[in-house]
Amino acid sequence: MSRCGTDIxxxxxxxxxxxxxxxxxxxxxxxxxxxxxxxxxxxxxxxFGCRFCEYMTLVLRLHHHDFDQHDDIPLxxxxxxxxxxxxxxxxxxxxxxxxxxxxxxxxxxxHPFGEKEVPRALLAARNATDFGGRTxxxxxxxxxxxxxxxxxxxxxxxxQSSYSAQRQSDRIRWTPTRLLQIERWDSGLVVRVIHPDxxxxxPLEAYITLSHCWGDKQPxxxxxxxxxxxxxxxxxxxxxxxxxxxxEIDSLCIIQKEPSxxxxxxxxxxxxxxxxxxxxxxAASTAPDADTGLFTYRDPYISxxxxxxxxxxxxxxxLIPEPDILAVAVTGGPLARRGWVLQEQLLARRVLHFGDQxxxxxxxxxxxxxxxxxxxxxxxxxxxxxxxSIRQRILGILRPQFHWVPSARQEALYNVWDEICTxxxxxxxxxxxxxxxxxxxxxxxFTLLLSPDDPNGYAAGxxxxxxxxxxxxxxxxxxxxxxxxxxxxGEISYSSKERRHGYYLARLEGLSVDACINDATNSPGDSxxxxxxxxxxxxxxxxxxxxxxxxxxxxxxxxHIALSSGYLREGTNHARIILDITDAVELxxxxxxPLVVSEDTDRRRKILHGIILSRVSVAGAxxxxxxxxxxxxxxxxxxxxxxxxxxSDSAADNPWEALERDMQADDETTREQSSLDCVxxxxxxxDQGKKFVSRTQFQKSLRSYQERIFQPLQEETITIL
Length: 721
Prior knowledge:
alpha+beta, eleven-stranded mixed β-sheet, 25 helices, 28% helix, 23% strand, HET-domain-containing protein, HET
């Protein structure tokens, strides 16, 4: 029996019963029975020798670093029934840490033995002794060389840069300002700083880059005072371990701590090209500093343990974790928390990650030692690690069939942009002053995709063509404008993608962005956006103060409680209110600016999204700063003044209640009599169904209905700094 396999005698009675259910007449029925209903019971079963429980303990520990601290967390396992179109089965494991109100989901893929691609995925596991105890073993070197050779010779997409085709003509001529050249002297290996344009005869054919964490201790770096000695040569033994394992290193190719900072500023702006034009990027994904190195000792059977082969009474199965579990060392390691590294790895054509095993990603495949030929078909259905997913989506968007639907192509790119912004915002920078320049490579790449004909299309982290829905970000956990997510130091998120399909209740009137922000140069000056929309004056009160974004608030319009927010709070006046910087916002008078109405298709209701503003008294009338985000289903209280509503409009204590119920009513007769007519008037009933007309007609219908029934709030011009 292979070290990666086990027979039914190695399973506890409960687990054996679950897997016996995979065969027989009822194989299509879901399995919900799993007696190990807490993490502690799974661990106990593993200690008594159950191979499946031992395997699940290993995978759970990989998935969540707090796993060992929550023994009494409830655990549920669910195996859906087999489908007619596939013999794969998925094992879903859910657990809920009660103290964090957060649910985790873990998925395994269960392959019935005999599927054509399962033996290929198990090839490495069956020869586990070849892996070696370090990631620089002979097996690892051969595997990395095979990945690179296959990519260079067979991958069509990878022979192109991550930049669009219009940059390809630059590839032959473009070279970094400096590179490190490794030479073998009589005294040993020596590294020299060279200038390719000056020191090389003929064109530069290829170079390799490195992504790494500096750590608390500053590594060796290039200074004005040692430039000449580095050009003459430095023994490799004097470099930190990670540097000895790599070639192109930013701290040795850019002059650091220069009084004028001129070299650093110039080269930092070119850093994205350094990675985009490199042959391969080496990523020290799990190394917290430069002294740790790329290569680490590891369990020689680590890849083998990621796959479990079970020999059961009625047949054999193979269990493989979902991609995010296999890639957790990459996606959750120290390197994945660095802001600068995001552009390095998104723009590099090929990345070789070093963790407890090797991981490869390029434009066509992601792979690891566990799955050296990439994921199986069933694993592909579960998605890919984040980096690879973004690459693939951009490539898919740029394919010719998307050109027939330019609006769909643009929207898809905007959605990818949202994800990249969210990812970048959660990362750390040693110097917050680098926030603009460390993102500029991605900006330049997307400018070619989103705004090739408009050099002013990019606006401080947003795009002019998507500015209204682009304002709907929030921060749950400077001189950059408050409306840009770049003004925040913490992680941001965006409201639902459906906001781009909704009705826009405001329009962009003007936009002024200081060039220093878009170019990431010097200190930015004043920037602003001007919007024409409805502004609702309000009083914001905090009723419960909790950490992060769990504060509870009430919002008063016209002296009456109009909205309330709080964790798990529901009701007709429910709102989600997230302030950008909780302790920096003085609660009191503020202004709500509704921007978009979107459709919640899951719950069959409409949601109003907008931002919260505070007036800037020194800047004059109509000038505000952004202070938060809100969303709510309570339409009426934004557009109709409470003193206009008569008691007959509602039998409830709150005059808005009846109006709110009508606006969300599903019954067609009720809807025809409700204040939601302003929306329904924009829908033409045809034999084929409902057809939405233009936003302009919606706006006209909204104003017409307001003027006919209620006194509307007046639209105005709003300037946001």
